[in-house]
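Page header: ASSEMBLY MODEL / two components / 1020 residues total.
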Amino acid sequence: MNMTVPQINFSVIAPELIITAFALAILLLGVFLPRAGRSDYLGYISLAGIVVAFLFTLPIMGASQYAFSRAIVADGFGVFLKVIFLIIAFLTVLISIGYARRVDIDFGEYYTLILFATVGMMLMAAGTSLVTIFLGLETMSISIYVLAGMMRGDGKSIESALKYFLLGAFATGFLLYGMALIYGSTGSLVLEEIAAHVKSKPELLRSPMIIIGIALLTIGFGFKVATVPFHMWTPDVYEGAPTSITAFMATGVKAAGFAGFIRVFFSALGPFQPDWIAIMWLLAVATMTVGNVVALAQTNIKRMLAYSSIAHAGYVLVAFVAGNELGTASILFYLLVYAFMNIGAFTVVILLGKREEENVLISDYAGIGFKYPLLAASMTIFLLSMAGIPPLGGFMGKFYIFSAAVKAEYYWLAVIGVLNSAISVYYYLRVTVLMYFREPEREISGLSFSPTAVLAVIVSIGGVLFMGIFPASVLAWAKRSIMGLM
Amino acid sequence: MGHLLSIIVDHLLTILIFLPIVGAIVLLLMDKENHSAIRRVAFVFSLAEFILSLPLFFWFDPNFVGMQFTESAGWIPEYGISYHLGIDGISLLLVLLTTFLTVLCILSSWSAITVRVKEYMISFLFLETGMVGALVALDLVLFYVFWEVMLIPMYLLIGVWGDPKRRIYAAIKFFIYTMAGSVLMLVAILALYFINLEATEIRTFDVLELYKTAIPIRTQYWLFAAFAVAFAIKVPMFPFHTWLPDAHTEAPTAGSVILAGVLLKMGTYGFIRFAMPLFPNAAMTFLPLICVLAIIGIIYGAMVSMMQADLKRLVAFSSVSHLGYVMLGMFALNMQGVEGSVYQMLNHGVSTGSLFLLVGMIYERRHTRMIADFGGLSKVMPVFAAIFMIVTLSSIGLPGTNGFVGEFLILLGAFRAKTAYGVAAATGVILGAAYMLWMFQRVMFGEIKNPENMKLKDLNTREIATMVPMVLLIFVMGIYPKLFFTKMDVSVDQFIKGFKAKYEMKGEAPTPRVTSILSAGNARERVLPPSGTN
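Prediction written out in full:
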């Protein structure tokens, strides 16, 4: 038997390596630097690491090369998502400086774990083998479990971490079992080989083992991206976790979940599309509808945004069902614009709080429209963008998604989607109603705006507006990115 | 200098769209406490906008077939979405109505709005951008963007500066109703795009291109229904009208004026520009239904108006009735009907706008709008009463005023189309006279029963300055309608011809082409999900 030495190509995983190196450095510095003010430095170092990693992402843009025995690839799809993850990580660190100090979680580990989670996400997007994807998922998830429970003095934070960990571990079990079944029936872990194997042996198309494997994978990924009915953990975890981590989860983890989801289902399980598409159709409808309808009844803004994030996963699933080139490109577009608007909204939530007074009830927003006009205007932009009002990025994202659905002739799915979007307007507007139309119930004052968080808001607004008014360039990039995938 | 002028001429519509935004940005940078400066700046910008819109009227070539003042630039080339602007005789008049009413609205808000003046004026200018943009956009996505952009400022105007009691309810109801309708239109727009793409392989959302697309009749039904619901909510047609009385009643005066004057016209304009020419076969099928609903609207609106105790609510319901005429005339589909319909859009903007302004003036003085609280006002406020009389008569459609011309043509058109429609609609004229005159009598004549009404001041100079242009327009439009008809004759003629020509095609392309994706039914290979498309 021939032994082949795995081809080592470090440039393909350079961004991941750089982030890992920075994460380890921060872990050490956290021990040696004196406590006072150190977290700010650690935050800035993290930012530097992310920027460097970004610079090393540029060379692999547009390339398409495998490495490590086809376990990992640098292709357009993966690179686009890596850019999304780096942007998300960058914004998350920006909003954490200041906030982490406020809620006393300014340890070196905090930033290290954010960076580790980012590495996990990047591996998920780049992985072309079930094992790589699984490793990425676990690296990400374990970091997030810890981050969610960082506020050790806060019962809700601990509950959030424990709940996420227990359910997450359970979902991981499903995922792994599903992978095992697929490996067992096709004899390969590499996504493309799985598809090729199924094509060469059509009787596999009816193999119950693979079908069960697909179902288990759907549950596993469905849990990570929070689709109904695997969404139950979302509101509690999002509410209890530190707000910066909630923003990170709602955007990064979700995007990474979709990255793996798309890779596995389109590359490896493409031949089974007729089987899984009907399930996805139902998941999309249930996810959008439950997310939006339950969001209507929330009184805590973090919970409301949690349900809203469930609904947004539903919109992405609409494009997933559409399954065409436009649909996949629109998913990338949507994940990016969603990162901007959602992190932006959570940043406003952070900015409206202060030490010992987080102000996370929706009623706390009463009257801030004229007291903190710029803060309220930013929140309005983010919420309206999520509601899909032009000329904001969220509208263009939905426009592309629903056009993909219409193109694939899923008219009813598109109609249900836009009607959901109309329902969502109600709860997004409710916040603006409070901000602008009502007098404050109690005085909120003495807020101190952390400059980095303000920068994050500005960047997010820039992203939302740019993608709303000049969406063509981003979509064109997204379309180029998925060429190898489809 | 000449160079600058030519830039202005070439990009007049763009300037008209974005000038209000420039004004809003200027306002944003101003000191929020300096109310009088803010009012002046807003007024100057709205006036400049109006003055800049006048050349449209004078340079408009009435004999030219097609769009004028066109501008075109790629926006999202990937999709063939373009920044395509242009006006014909119909949108020309509506654009002028918009810029004209905005000036008056800002004037009328001078003393009525005392809190958050800066934010108010910014919202108003943003609203103007949305309205002008929606009227001049010739690309469906661009139109949709402006259509939605109008929602936010109007929502804020109702919600922040509206009547404290039910403003939030009214604002949300307005937003959700309109939004629910328009998202369905978005799906229809997308479907239309892909149908055209499949048939012609041209990526475009350009409405002038899409006019030419042959759409199978069964598909037309669905698409027309989606467009029609979006527009019918905006018009509003019976039975989609329930948001209107709330929004009108709770909105501040200027908000009601612009809502009645322009925003409702967006619905009727949508029918004439998009829904009908794009889907003529479906429009013909639904025609009886729409005409009957229009007539129900005319009569129902008038009867409900009669029973209102609140002046503003009365005027609001009268809008339902007036817009019923507009719809009826449009669907009469003959020269008289459609011209009357367009004319009635303008009339309604002028006369109902004036009525809201007048009600606002009396409300500012007495802080009540209940008809029962008034009586005998003509004795203490003679100027007010005189102007109110003229506007009332215009609203009823007395010969010599603008209302007569519009209603007469619509009825003529309706009779020609189907006698029964004409007869039924004509009863609305009688009812209209009844509720308006009865209201006038109760408010203006008789003894002054309420001592608070004794010391009411008559209109001041600014208020008179607001009303004089309206009164002049009422007479000019009533006595010399030719001034406006010459501008729209060709466009209306083209509308009817284009409609009929496409109708004759019966949804089929003149040359054999690939059948459209919607009609292809289940001729697809892959397994269908339960999406119910077939």
